[in-house]
Amino acid sequence: MDITEFNINLDIAKEAAKDSGKLLLKNKKELNKSLKSNNKDTKLIADLKAENLIKEIIVKKSKYPILAEESGKSVEDLGDTFWVIDPLDGTANYSRGIPMCCVSIGLVKNMKPLLGVVYDFNNKDMYVGNSLTKISTLNNNKIIVSDFKKKSDGVLVTGLPVNSDYSNTSLEKIIYDMQSWKKIRMIGSAAMASCYIASGKAEMYKEKGVYLWDILAGAAIVESAGGIADISNIRENFQVDVVFSNSHIKD
Questions:
Q1: Do residues 169 and 220 both lie within one domain?
Q2: 0.85 exceeded by the pTM?
Q3: What is the CATH number of the domain that holds 204?
């Protein structure tokens, strides 16, 4: 992919993120209705409508296939380069009026993030990561990771995804890890957590069993901001384990 095509795709991602964010904000009363819910997960009409709008824009302007949270793969063989979409990351927050949610759109090649756009529509904040320039921005202003070097000075962002093990043993391991850090935050949006690492608001985001669409765009933003985005244990259903850091603090 040459620089011209890269920039075209980046503009497509920005357009799709902004337009879907506007939809989610403007039509919240209509869209904030449950499609299904279980004891740990919530799906709204908002998820579906936002995803349809994003896909409509991408299909019209880009040649690459799509992996989306709600509809899955647009073709059976995604190839080496494809879009990864989370139309509403932080659905439970959105449904309850907690302004900690966003649209997340990334492009990946050989499972390495090429570009990422995360639109925090509540605050009209657009985070962008560009693997060519190695620059990340927030509303067109450059952002970089923090320079904290010790966990005892740092902030860890984490969470418990839908399919988490809530047993005492599993939770005790998480708590043990938390004790090394100065502060802990659980904000309910993996994409926003990634952006907080990239912009120096926190030092590490880690979570097991999140989905690729939750974190792919954020990975591009973290890496382009000077951090490390480690994505491992990729399952067939696109669940992954992640550790995103400012690169100074190791897991």
A1: yes
A2: yes
A3: 3.40.190.80
